[in-house]
Structure formats: C-alpha cells, structure tokens
C-alpha cells in the first residue's frame, strides 16, 4: 500500500469514526420536537416559532412551534413532557417551582430546566386616541380591558397591577391579535399586554388607526416595583411610531425552557446554536438582541439543564451550584 493510499484510507476512517460518533450521540434524541409559544399576534409566537424552525433546520430535526396559553401553560406542558421546549417568564416560573402555578396548584414543577435568556417583557397599555384615555387615571370605572390569553403572564400579573393602582375594570381574555381587533372595533376600551416589544398586535394597530401608548407615572412605577416581581423598564421611543419619547414601564425576564430529562447532547447543541448565532436569532425577532449568555444572571429560579451548563462552562460563564441539577 502506497503512502498516499494509507493517508486517504486513514482520513476516510477518521471521518467515518467522527460520523459514527455523531450518530451515536443522537441515538437517544427524540424523532421530533415541539416548542410551546403563546397565541398568535404576540412576540412569544413569533420568537418561539422562528426559534423552532432554526433548530429544525440547523440540527436536521423535525419540529415547530405550537400555539399555547403562554408561560404558565408552557411550564406545565414541559413539566409533563407534552412538549420538549417552551418559553416562560420568571414570575410564573417561580410560582411553578414552588407549587403555586395557577394551572396546577400544589404541584411543584421539578422537570423544567432553563436554557438561555430571551428578553425582558415590558408591560404595555394602549387605547385608541379618540377614547380620550391618555393616562391610567383616565381609564373609566368599569372599563373593559383585554389582558391577553387566560393564565398568561399578562393575565396573571397585569390585572393585579391595575387593581393595585386603583383601576376598576371588566376583565377580558383572548389572543393578542383578537383583542387588538376588538380594541379597534370599539368592543373593548383598553389593552394591557405583557409581551416582548414591539408587540405585533400593537404595531398592526398603529398602521390602521391612531393609538395612545400609556405609561406609568414615577409614583405608580415605584408602587408596582414594591409589590410585584418586576424591574423598571423604559420602552424606547423607537419601538412604536406612536411614541415621541421613551415610556416608563416595568418588565419581567423571559427564558427558554426544556424538560430536564431531555438528552444532554441535544440540549447542548440547541444552546450552542442559539447562543453562538445571535444574528440569526435577531432575524427571527429583534428582541433577541438580549438573547445573549451575559443575561443568564436573570434566572435565579430554575435549574439550568446539564446540556446548557456544559456549553456555558466551556465558554467561561459560571452557573451557581444551586442552579445545577
């Protein structure tokens, strides 16, 4: 056998071994996967569906996003193994871990692991300009307010926030797009959404009619920060064409989640793909600008999946011991 033949044979053998190893690593991977998102017209649906497509395309898997009731339901679906991946906010996550989920009170959800940070969810209030509602104090007694899908982060926290601020209202639930349409048609008075910005339903409203984006006063913001698991936030004026200057609000962080029993190699590859390709993530939704590993510090509730921990530690990011399985 000539030296050239030996080299070619050795190279082919090495390639076959690498391919075999890669195939072996996938032996316990599921045949397909689903990402729990939220209702259409919201950021979760856009972000989650796009992320699912990115995973499927890049890793050669079959998968996609699924319309759900949002963070609370996603936690339950992932915990029960009904979907592999999902999106949630830290408030509902803390409740779920403590067994205080509105969907499963008394059941600690211990099969939910964090993957990576997504973005902050600002709380946004809007009304039609011709309603005369320009501030929270302008909201009339008994106004009908759409809070998004039942049991969503928006529906869980926004009604409590407005009650804390002394607003008396008639509560309405529905998909983001549907409630935006109801506002435009005069069927409800206000929409109060907790969703990544820009909220697609509000952006669509701006194209079709005049809208007032309503901010919290400094006093109202301080009052909310003292009572709820949120942080101060400024909605940039560039977010919506309606805004002439930044709007004062509050926000809650979002993280992607996975069943803790998913294969470590699969979750490692998903985390690697998501954290090393922020340009592709931003092509999905511009809020993914904040989907970077530096923001893992905002999860103090859920354990990180071992596959995610491996990627973070390989790349110099420290995961606290109490957030490891």
Walk me through this protein's architecture:
Helices cover 38% and strands 21% of the residues. The protein is an alpha/beta fold. It has two domains: 160 residues, D-Maltodextrin-Binding Protein, domain 2; 132 residues, 3-Layer(aba) Sandwich (D-Maltodextrin-Binding Protein, domain 2). Strands 1, 2, 3, 4, 5, 6, 7, 8, 9 and 10 form a ten-stranded mixed sheet that branches. Helix 5 links the parallel strand 5 and strand 6. The longest helix is centred in the first third of the chain and has 23 residues.
Q: Summed up, what is this model?
A:
This protein is an alpha/beta fold and 325 residues long. It folds into two domains: 30-118 and 253-323, D-Maltodextrin-Binding Protein, domain 2 (3-Layer(aba) Sandwich), CATH 3.40.190; 121-252, 3-Layer(aba) Sandwich (D-Maltodextrin-Binding Protein, domain 2).
Overview features:
C4-dicarboxylate ABC transporter substrate-binding protein; signal; alpha/beta; 10-stranded mixed sheet; D-Maltodextrin-Binding Protein, domain 2; disordered N terminus; 11 helices; about 325 residues; TRAP_TAXI
Note the topology.
Elements: H1 3-25, E1 32-36, H2 43-59, E2 62-66, H3 71-79, E3 85-89, H4 90-97, E4 112-128, E5 143-146, H5 153-164, E6 169-172, H6 176-184, E7 190-194, H7 200-208, E8 211-214, H8 218-227, E9 231-235, E10 247-259, H9 264-275, H10 278-284, H11 306-314
Helix pairs in contact: 2-9, 6-7, 9-11
InterPro entries: TRAP_TAXI
Pfam families: NMT1_3 (PF16868)
Keywords: Signal
């Amino acid at each position: 056998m000539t030296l050239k033949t030996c080299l070619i044979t050795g190279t082919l053998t090495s390639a076959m071994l690498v391919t075999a190893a890669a195939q072996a690593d996938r032996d316990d991977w599921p045949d397909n996967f689903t990402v729990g998102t939220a209702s259409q017209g919201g950021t979760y649906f856009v972000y989650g569906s796009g992320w699912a497509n990115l995973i499927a395309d890049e890793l050669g898997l079959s998968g996609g996003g699924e319309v759900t009731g949002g963070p609370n339901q996603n936690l339950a679906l992932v915990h029960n193994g009904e979907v592999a991946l999902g999106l949630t906010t830290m408030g509902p996550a803390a409740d779920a871990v403590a067994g205080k989920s509105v969907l499963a009170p008394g059941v600690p959800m211990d099969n939910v692991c964090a993957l990576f940070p997504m973005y902050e969810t600002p709380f946004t209030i809007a009304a039609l300009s011709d309603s005369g509602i320009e501030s929270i104090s302008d909201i009339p007694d008994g106004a009908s307010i759409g809070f998004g899908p039942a049991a969503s982060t928006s529906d869980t926290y926004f009604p409590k926030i407005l009650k804390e601020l002394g607003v008396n209202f008639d509560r309405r639930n529905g998909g983001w797009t549907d409630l935006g349409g109801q506002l435009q048609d005069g069927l409800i008075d206000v929409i109060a959404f907790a969703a990544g910005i820009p909220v697609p339903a509000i952006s669509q409203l701006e194209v079709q009619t005049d809208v007032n984006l309503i901010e919290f006063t400094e006093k109202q913001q301080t009052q909310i920060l003292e009572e709820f698991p949120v942080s101060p936030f400024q909605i940039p004026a560039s977010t919506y064409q309606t805004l002439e200057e930044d709007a004062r609000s509050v926000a809650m962080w979002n993280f992607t989640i996975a069943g803790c029993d998913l294969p470590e190699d699969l979750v490692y590859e998903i985390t690697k793909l998501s954290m090393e390709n922020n340009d592709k993530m931003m092509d999905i939704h511009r809020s993914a600008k904040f989907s970077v590993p530096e923001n893992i510090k905002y999860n103090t509730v859920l354990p990180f999946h071992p596959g995610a921990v491996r990627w973070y530690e390989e790349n110099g990011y420290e995961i606290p011991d109490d957030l490891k399985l």
